[in-house]
Design brief:
- By secondary structure, this protein is of the alpha+beta class.
- It contains 40 helices and 25 strands.
- The radius of gyration is 37 Å and the shape is flat.
């Protein structure tokens, strides 16, 4: 399997970072819309603005973020399908600073240092150090970046024993945090972040752009290499015993290096050649006895040694290998017994693997450093022991998984003898048990709090080992993987997957709802700044009336006022050039128009008015059908404010303040529902909003609280709240009325509701599988993850597996069960992942489009302050929103069709596997069940199917052909809301029917247990052996269940006589085959049928009555139970008993379910079903 990667450059402007973010998000949107499975987006970073833009985009869209650099990454922290990769390999700055003082550290003595860009690799930093006569020691691999994950994860190497880990030598970091802050972290400022970055893990706390490293003296290096001896068991043990005996002594002398079972290579930069020879004599003496190759040499520097002995290693890109490791404490080298134990553990760990290393690359001699966050286990360790395995690119997923498991099992040999130690997180087992203790030890809790501080929304959460049970740095989300096999592992790990796919394929509804709930609770206020408005904030403001505040950022006001000043200059006599709507006409007219004329012309819609006339006249239309709903108007006001704050529109600050005052005081203009074609923006509704601030045009508004809220005039409402009117200056009215705010607001609200319906579709499908005794095979991961891996399809399947977890209703097909006649479920169940999945992908694309539109400049003309110019364009053309709404509406129709298919299958006795016709709980001859509801469902689907037609192919010329093409976005969004309303009705019917069906299925299950007992008892006294008795009971019970389904349309008074009629022959045939000992005189077939039928009828009615009193399907359901419980308990919709037993009409119950959709009450129980 391969992944496609889209690489692009983000054009940022240092002068105006916010404007740069706009362009970035526009580019991102195009790529997100085009992205398909396993395609990633990559930002090539050149400065902090690029990273800030990437994080802003990720925050708004929910796309997962990874940080890409060079080197190797065994835990997959820098990998993940369908992600936004922030690539820092372009940051190649390298600067030598002879006397470096960390910023803000006036008390710190100067030290030699080097500023290293995040993209610099050892192959570049080592020659640089040589050229400046310093040493910047690091690792062996030439492609590893000292300014990236190497230092951030700790950083080991052959010089570490004397000079400390890479993290110990990091003096300062330049970093962009996920909240968008560009910070300096050192021992004097942001000290907590400095601590975290010195070993807490790469890609965790932000994007490091530059690291300042301590420069060391360039000293000669003594080295020794021993290899090429006969690697017999005897030689290996003798060699390793010498090594283990002297390891601690060598460490104290300043040696560092690595040990293999057939090679030894150490270096030392603090002793003389003579001392080096003497120190290694025990090993060289033995080596001579086995004719090993011995090299002892003095190098001018670490770099010259590295170039001769390490650099020639040439590994291909993407080498498929995995590792597991353990830090081995000095205590394990202390006595003969412990060394023998360690040797045996080493041989056990190394057995069967491609490579084993004992890296003597720990800071044992260097000692402790309280200001680094790498695991304290480093400080007392003498070895970083590691095992490695490789595979081919065609190695199967199963084989790869086995390799990983073998590695983890092998390193257990070390874990057993090193309790309390740890592991190096940059080269660790992906299945590391107790990973928080292993990777960070006592630093873990502090790191978690720092993580929460600098990444509060967890944009940089990484993949965690499976089966881990602590919350922390690697457990917030499950996603990033180093290899395709890990992707497949995760896809099969149901406990980790739902949020993975919800974030990857569709908007994270749980996160969105949590944000809305937080805003509703008053925990936070929505701040408007023109660039960071989110969908949850818009929904909370528009639908739940939560308060807003204009950003206090001084830069926001400066931009706004600068653009207003620009307009004033353009409007003055003698100004150079022209500006549309300021010193030109408007639209197709040939005369200059004042701002108030614009507004008077735009307030031309049809509104409800009080009329005198015949009081007996009953209108066929409701006045509310003429008005834009309040929530839509609130959303439009919010979006218009957000656009004006971007500083591209030319409005004075006072205009923005007054418009915000209307929103803050809940004075909401009430524009006509119709009139807009969404071409020059939504001129008409925005005209009413703009007019609400003037005294020259009077428009209707909503004002007041609670029951006192009413429609009044804008002048009266403003007067009541002390809001002064505005006399618009040049371009200001035009700036408000040109824009896509209304259509975008309606689109955002519709998309939110559509997302909930998409989750509901998955949930009710799982409930239908339960109610119909369907098969969970529908969701088998091989079908979706391997055979046809469309991301939306994968998500539906994963969610389905979770929803059915624990259900006794859903069951795999059993060939031996005669009651299971269908080998496969019908399409309404079996192909649901393939039917729903593509719409989840469309919803993902829709969200990206809407959120970009929310934070865009959509009026005309717009002002480019940096270049002192005004531009006439078409950003008010709402086609992006229109097409999103078209696709969403088509998707809603598809969900409606699925509802109807499942409803019919539930109610038809020919398809519902033994449920009564029309789900009638009483006697079928006296109970119509859901027959009328079935008709209503067909009616709803017919209307929904009509609404599924496109709007945008009905465009007409407008405004003397000036607006010859127009998007009709608001019309399309309105029809989408109409479709949502009808789909709510469909789901109200389906959910009611599903709860009824599940209760009936549970009741039948109880009856079947009694049925089997009665059949068994009926054959007690006819002379059968125990085995024959059991065989006959099973056969008749199986056939009775088949007949139960075939007789579901009969009343219980005659049903069981008819049920047993053909089974008499089966009993007689069985007895005849038994031969002598079983006389037909002992079995009276007529009496058996008559007696058993009477008893079964009595039991059936008894079970039914008892279930009516206190029955529940909860104990037999999977994670779908939360919706069932909500309907039965919270909404108070009981099982429909039928006949004349029920006291409440079905219409009232359906209306409660519908209202739960309409008011959002159903969201919590739906989300609870998906919660892990």
């Amino acid at each position: 399997m391969y992944r496609s990667v889209l690489v692009f450059r983000v054009t940022t402007k240092e002068v105006n970072g916010k404007d740069a973010q706009l362009l970035d998000r526009l580019v991102f949107s195009i790529l997100t819309t085009l992205s398909r499975p396993r395609r990633s987006l990559v930002v090539n970073v050149r400065g902090p603005a690029d990273v800030q833009a990437a994080f802003a985009f990720a925050e708004q869209t929910g796309v997962r973020v990874i940080i890409k650099n060079s080197g190797h990454d065994s835990l997959g922290r820098s990998s993940g399908p369908n992600t936004l990769a922030i690539r820092t390999t372009t940051l190649k700055n390298l600067t030598y600073i002879p006397e470096f003082v960390p910023e803000g550290c006036n008390h710190v003595a100067p030290r030699p240092a080097a500023a290293v860009g995040a993209g610099v690799i050892f192959q570049e930093s080592y020659p640089f150090a040589e050229a400046h006569n310093i040493s910047l020691p690091g690792g062996a691999c030439p492609t590893v970046s000292p300014g990236g994950g190497y230092t951030l994860g700790g950083g080991h190497g052959m010089m570490v024993n004397n000079y400390g880990l890479g993290a110990d030598r990091a003096l300062q970091f330049k970093i962009v945090t996920p909240t968008g802050e560009f910070l300096t972290a050192n021992e004097c400022q942001n000290t907590d972040l400095w601590f975290a970055l010195r070993g807490g893990g790469g890609g965790t706390f932000g994007v490091v752009l530059e690291t300042v490293q301590l420069a060391l003296p360039r000293n000669p290096v003594q080295m020794i290499q021993i290899q090429d001896f006969d690697n017999t068991d005897e030689n290996t043990r003798a060699y390793m015993k010498i090594v283990l005996e002297h390891t601690k002594e060598w460490a104290l002398q300043g040696w560092g290096g690595f040990v293999q079972l057939n090679e030894f290579q150490y270096i030392n930069a603090i002793i003389s050649p003579e001392e080096a020879i003497e120190a290694m004599k025990p090993l060289t003496d033995w080596a001579q006895t086995v004719d090993a190759t011995i090299i002892q040499k003095t190098h001018d520097s670490y770099v010259t040694y590295w170039q001769e002995f390490l650099f020639p290693v040439d590994n291909p890109t993407g080498l498929p290998f995995a590792v597991a490791s353990r830090l081995i404490p000095a205590d394990n080298f202390e006595t003969d017994e412990k060394r023998e134990e360690l040797l045996n553990a080493t041989l056990e760990a190394a057995a069967g693997h491609d490579a084993w290393f004992g890296f003597a690359t720990t800071p044992f001699k260097y000692g402790a450093n309280k200001n680094t966050s790498a695991t304290p286990a480093w400080r007392n360790a003498l070895w970083h022991a590691i095992v490695e395995d490789f595979w081919n690119f065609d190695t199967t997923s199963g084989q790869q998984q086995q390799i990983l498991q073998n590695l983890s099992s092998s390193i257990d040999a070390y874990r057993k003898i090193t309790p309390g130690s740890g592991a190096y997180l940059n080269e660790a087992d992906i299945n590391e048990p107790n990973f928080s203790e292993s990777f960070w030890g006592s630093n873990y809790d502090r790191l978690v709090s720092i993580k929460d501080k600098y990444d509060p929304n967890h944009l940089l959460d990484c993949w965690r080992p499976r089966n881990a049970n602590q919350a922390g740095l690697m457990e917030k989300e499950s996603w990033g993987t180093p290899l395709e096999l890990l992707w497949e592992n995760i896809c099969h790990c149901d406990s980790d997957i739902v949020r993975l796919h919800c974030r990857a394929m569709c908007p994270d509804i749980q996160k969105e709802w949590n944000e809305i709930s937080s805003l509703r609770s008053g925990a936070k206020t929505t701040s408007i700044d023109g660039f960071t408005l989110s969908m949850p904030a818009l929904i909370a403001v528009a639908r739940y009336c939560i308060p807003t505040a204009i950003s206090e950022d001084a830069g926001v006001k400066e931009r706004v006022e600068a653009s207003a000043d620009f307009v004033v200059r353009m409007s003055e006599p003698g100004a150079k050039g022209s500006m549309y709507g300021v010193n030109t006409g408007v639209g197709a007219s040939d005369r200059t128009a004042l701002q108030r004329v614009i507004l008077k012309n735009l307030t031309s819609g049809i509104l409800p008015i009080e009329t005198a006339g015949n009081d007996n006249y009953l209108s066929s239309h409701h006045d509310s059908s003429l008005l834009l709903p309040e929530s839509w108007s609130r959303g439009a006001m919010l979006l218009r404010l957000n656009t004006l704050l971007r500083g591209h529109s030319g409005c004075r600050w006072i205009v923005i303040e007054r418009l915000h005052a209307l929103l803050a005081n809940n004075i909401i203009p009430s524009p006509p529902l119709r009139q807009s074609i969404s071409a020059s923006g939504d001129l008409a509704p925005l005209g009413y909003i703009a007019s609400a601030l003037t005294d020259e045009v009077v428009v209707p508004v909503w004002s007041g609280k609670g029951t006192d809220r009413k429609r009044t005039t804008s002048i009266e409402a403003r007067k009541a709240h002390g809001i002064e009117s505005i006399i618009y200056g040049p371009k200001e009215a035009l700036a408000i009325v040109n824009g896509t705010g209304p259509s975008c607001a309606v689109g955002a609200l519709a998309l939110h509701d559509a997302n909930i319906l998409a989750l509901t579709a998955q949930l009710t499908t799982a409930m239908a599988i339960e109610a119909l005794n369907g098969s969970p095979e529908t969701y088998d991961p091989f079908i979706h993850d391997i055979a046809r891996p469309h991301p939306g399809q994968i998500e539906v399947a994963v969610n389905g597996r979770h929803l059915l977890k624990g259900s006794t209703f859903a069951r795999m097909h059993d060939e031996s069960d005669p009651a299971q006649k269908l080998r496969q479920d019908r399409y309404g169940l079996r192909t649901a992942p393939q039917w729903i999945g593509p719409h989840l992908e469309e919803l993902t694309s829709a969200r990206a489009t809407i959120e970009i539109e929310m934070n865009s400049t959509t009026d005309n003309p717009i002002i480019d302050l940096e270049n002192e110019r005004n531009l006439g364009g078409g950003n008010f053309q709402g086609t992006s929103i229109a097409l999103v709404m078209e696709k969403v509406r088509i998707g809603l129709q598809h969900l409606g069709k699925l509802v109807h298919a499942q409803f019919v299958e539930l109610t038809s006795p020919h398809m519902n596997r033994g449920l009564p016709p029309d789900l009638a709980a009483w006697e079928p001859s006296l109970d119509f069940g859901v027959k009328t509801m079935d008709v209503a469902t067909a009616a709803y689907l017919s209307e929904l199917s009509f609404l599924g037609n496109t709007v945008t192919n009905h465009v007409q010329n407008a405004e003397q052909h000036n607006q010859a093409v127009n998007s009709l976005a608001l019309i399309s969004a309105r029809y989408t809301f109409h479709a949502i309303q009808v789909l709510y009705m469909l789901y109200s019917n389906l959910i009611w029917a599903l709860c009824q069906a599940l209760d009936l299925r549970a009741m039948i299950s109880i009856f079947f247990k009694r049925l089997e007992s009665e059949i068994k008892a009926s054959f007690v006294n006819i002379g059968l052996s125990e085995s024959a008795h059991a065989a006959l009971t099973k056969h008749i019970y199986d056939q009775a269940r088949v007949r139960f389904g075939e007789t579901s349309q009969m009343d219980s008074s005659t049903r069981f006589t008819e049920l047993l009629r053909p089974l008499v022959t089966d009993v007689l045939d069985f007895l005849a085959k038994e031969g002598e000992g079983v006389s037909s005189t002992k079995f009276d077939a007529l009496e058996w049928r008559t007696t058993l039928a009477s008893q079964l009828g009595k039991i059936y009615r008894e079970v039914r009555s008892q279930y009516y009193e206190n029955g529940s399907a909860e104990g037999m359901m999977g994670n779908t139970v939360h919706l069932y419980r909500y309907v039965r308990k919270d909404l108070g919709v009981p099982i429909r008993k039928g006949g004349d037993i029920d006291t409440e009409g079905v219409d009232v119950q359906l209306s409660r379910i519908y209202r739960a959709f309409e008011r959002g009450g159903i969201i919590e129980p739906v989300l609870k079903c998906f919660k892990q």
